[in-house]
Amino acid sequence: MIDRAPRAKREGMVSGGRGMLALTLGVLGIVATSAAAPACGVTDDPADTPADVPEAGMPDAIAPDSAPAPLCVDGKPVDWPPGPYEIGITSTLPPDLAFEGPSGTVRLKDYFEPCAARSRLLVVRSAAAWCGPCGWHATHTTRLLGDARFADRLLLLDLLIADEDNMPANPPAAMRWSKRIDVPAGVPAKVAMDAKYTFSAALPAKNVLPEYVLVDTRTMKVRTVMNAPDPDTLGGYLDLELAALDGKPRVDIPERKLHDGLLTDDQFDLLQDMKLPAVPPPDPTNEYADVAAAVAFGKKLFEDTGLSPSGTVACITCHDPTKAFGDGLKQANGVALGDRNSPPIALSSHARWQFWDGRADTLWMQALGPFENAKEFASSRAFVVHAIANSADYTADYATVFGAKYGALPDLTTVPAMGKPGDAAYDALPQAKRDEVTRVYVNAGKAIAAFERTLRVKPNDLDRYIGGDATAMQGRVRRGLEQFFKVGCVQCHWGPRLTDDAFHAIRFPTGRQDGAADRGRADVLLGLATAEFVASSKWSDAPQAAKPLSFPGVPPSMIGAFKTPTLRGVSQSAPYGHGGAFGQLLDVTKHYGQRGQMVTPASAAGIVEEWLPNFDANVQGDLPALLDILTADRLP
User: Is the peptide bond before 84 cis (omega within 30 degrees of 0)?
Assistant: First the structure.
């Protein structure tokens, strides 16, 4: 990793029980002060400096400022410590920092207590709701901060950067996040929104979330910055800083306990949550989602090229079970070459959003999209409904699944052979007739979704390792797993499917046939709420169960953002990226390691997110060894 930080921010790197803890890929990102400025009630005694003395080769301690201005005069606090102000290591935080939260405005000034008998540490934790390690830290806050040795010495300010989909933090998201935080007894805690990720300025290099910033409440100076610290390291630094502020003897950072010599406790817990998923979550918007007859009907429709006017395209064309339910092509090829790669669908029934840009919020809505896409089926709802009505087999299947609720197929005498909204002949039909046609069309999509919900995959070597078979990972695969956690892949690739189902701008090259950069999520966001088949529409079996789709605008972070793909089956689903630009996994890890900097500006939209770290060639080479074992062979 390249450390581009100015020297003033790098001088404070400290050593711990395992040697220097620097912002490198091999070790957690931690920066700490080398000296503390005296405050009211704090002496200039050497014992008041941080206890972690630099080892050989470390920079000398920074000399304290001479004659610091008193912050507590006649028992009364000054308004704020004197400047200059900066969000950085050893710096005094700006006095005007304030964040909006579910319970009102949270001001940094509220934490300033220069007249206190002893300092407390304000723990500022910046996190995102889509982030795997962030979720772990939120739900394990008591374990991290609730130790008796920290009693009455800590304050917690949780700053939420983004919601579960990586949209900028908003009040509902902050409220949901607050419910995930396991607040320890005796630790005053608040949650607020920080879509600007204000405290990223304290970092000397890009690194993984969550970020911890430890602030001395008597001086409002930043003392330590950490990225996704394991419990032992975080506890050690809290201990160290409190001892230093109290003028007590040095406290050593404890050795990190490693599972199988690889993973810390938090990483091991996240690994256990990556177990192969079983049945998909229920879909109340599709009451036929788990009906056996609907599954059988949907399988037939999934494999039928007769639903395309050309007679050449079926769902299975782009989602071949022998190719991890992909097609092995750069871009999908239906009746014409498309603009995006065909994503594997074996576990798509578990996803919150469908398509690369998330323009469908249910699996049945996704199933309807390709039929009326000019480059995929180039079909229409009228054509699909006629095909069902003209087949005795399909007519019987439809009646078995949907007849009890919707009756027989409608009379199609006046319905054109081809037709969809926007076609003059179709639009000329009475509304009631158009609704009859659309109902059959929607039901066909729900049947296809029912079939897709049955697609399962076999366990792979990762599952066997999680299950306790240490021999399932050897050599470079083990190094790949270790790096997967250390460099931040686990931020987005976590959980049973190894995806957060959120949208990120990583600047993968476009696959558009016109060569233009693909704007991804940004181009569909505002139209979602009014889309014809969203889960809140009249075609849903449970509109009240739909997720909110009202967005005030398109934030810059969604320009060029695409859904995080599952890593299950990644070794079998080349080429990679929404444009299918990369043929090998090594190409993908190089792209990530270089933070997309090698992609020409014209071929990718958006700005790479700052929590995506850059990492060196060794890591780029180790990660594919892990990815190679992430197969997703179909389970009959």
Answer: yes
Pairing label, strands 104-107, 98-101: antiparallel
How many structural domains compose the chain?
Answer: 3
Please give the sequence-ordered ranges of beta strands (E in DSSP) within 385-458, or none if there are none: 456-457
Cα–Cα distance for residue pair 124/137, rounded to 1 Å: 13
What tens digit of pLDDT does each residue of 250-292 get? Answer: 989 999 999 999 999 999 999 999 999 989 999 999 999 999 9
Co-location of 474 and 610 in the same domain: yes
Query: In this structure, are strands 154-160 and 121-127 parallel, antiparallel, or unpaired?
Result: parallel
Q: Nearest Cα to 224, choosing from 206, 203, 209?
A: 203
Q: Is residue 494 part of a domain?
A: yes
Using CA atoms, how far apart are residues 381 and 276, in angstroms rounded to an integer?
36
Question: Quick one: 445 and 470 in the same domain?
Answer: no
Give φ, ψ of 405 to 5 degrees. Answer: -95, -40
> Which secondary-structure segment (H or E) carries 563?
strand 561-563
The CA distance from 379 to 315, in Å, is 12
Q: Looking at the structure, tell me whether residues 220 and 310 fall in a common domain.
A: no
Q: Which position has the higher pLDDT, 41 or 312?
A: 312
Task: Provide mean pLDDT across the span 449-461.
Answer: 96
In three-state secondary structure terms, 160 is: strand
Q: What is the pTM of this model?
A: 0.89
pLDDT confidence tier of residue 68, bands split at 50, 70 and 90: low
Tens of pLDDT, residues 350-409:
999 999 999 999 999 999 999 999 999 999 999 999 999 999 999 999 999 999 999 999
- List the domain range (segments joined by +) for residue 17: 7-51+87-257
Q: What is the pLDDT of residue 224?
A: 96
Mean pLDDT of the chain: 89
- With 0-12 / 13-18 / 19 or more C-beta atoms within 10 angstroms meaning exposed / middle / buried, residue 471 is exposed
Burial 408-427, CB ≥16 within 10 A → b, else e: ebbebeebbebbbeeeeebe
* 256 vs 512: CA distance, rounded Å: 47
In tens, the pLDDT along 462-513 reads 999 999 999 999 999 999 999 999 999 999 999 999 999 999 999 999 999 9
